[in-house]
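User: I'm putting together notes for a lab meeting next week and I want to include a structural view of one of the chains we've been expressing. I don't have a solved structure, so I'd like a prediction I can at least talk through. The sequence is below, exactly as it appears in our construct file.
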Amino acid sequence: MTATAGKARYVIERTVPTLIWGREDGEFHTRVSLFNYYSLLFEDRPVTSRAYVYLFQEDGSEVGRFDQVLPLHGQWQFDLSTVIRDFQGSVGVQLVPDYLPPLSHARYLGALFFATYWDARGHCDFTHETDRMRFEDDRRFQYEPATIPTSPQVEMSIIVQNSFFGANPAECDPRLTITVKNATGKTLLDRTLELGLRASRLIPLAELLTDYRQRLGGQVGSVHVKGRHINQPLTFLRHASGDFNVHHF
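Assistant: Thanks for the context. Below is the predicted structure for the 249-residue chain, given as structure tokens.
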């Protein structure tokens, strides 16, 4: 299968990569788990799929593209540590079947998968994929809220990713707005940032609002992220014990 004419090289027929965040270093690791679920959809034929994994550092540079054929009922457990030693950024995962019936809609097909994270101290967590890559014809706004934990033992960061992967960089909207509100809905912070093409950032909440705990007064709060070419954000929570949690908004 070849890339559709006029589209970015990440569009193969009707499929596009779906994004998640990853980190790989001496203390923290990421694994992508992918199954050829297309082989379960058709009783009249075996379906083989080719899986792709793309790695993009926080500055948006692509540093790796890897693929593997998945046979009938096949799977791929892809440890980032096997291909890169120092990485933090966006991971794109794509599944391209060798057969697709005619589709009644014009939307792209993303991929379903899991990402598992673990550290050198034995803590572990996992999450599923977020949203598909976005292109010139996708102009919807992404708006996502998340709760701020009340425990002083938990430090919260948010992960934001620029999800535009179109062929024309001029079409990318780099702006995003981060808003922090208290339990009554009062706005404590409303800041507009820019995130370059395909770039990502892990931003500690204390970096945005240094005294957010005092201003929340021990009550629950919320953080809101809005942008046109912003992927579904994730939270990275780190407990004082060292344990962590990664989850989408």
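A couple of points you could mention at the meeting. The longest helix spans residues 212-216. Residues 18-128 form a domain with the Hypothetical Protein Tm1070; Chain: A fold (CATH 2.60.290).

User: Perfect, that's what I needed.
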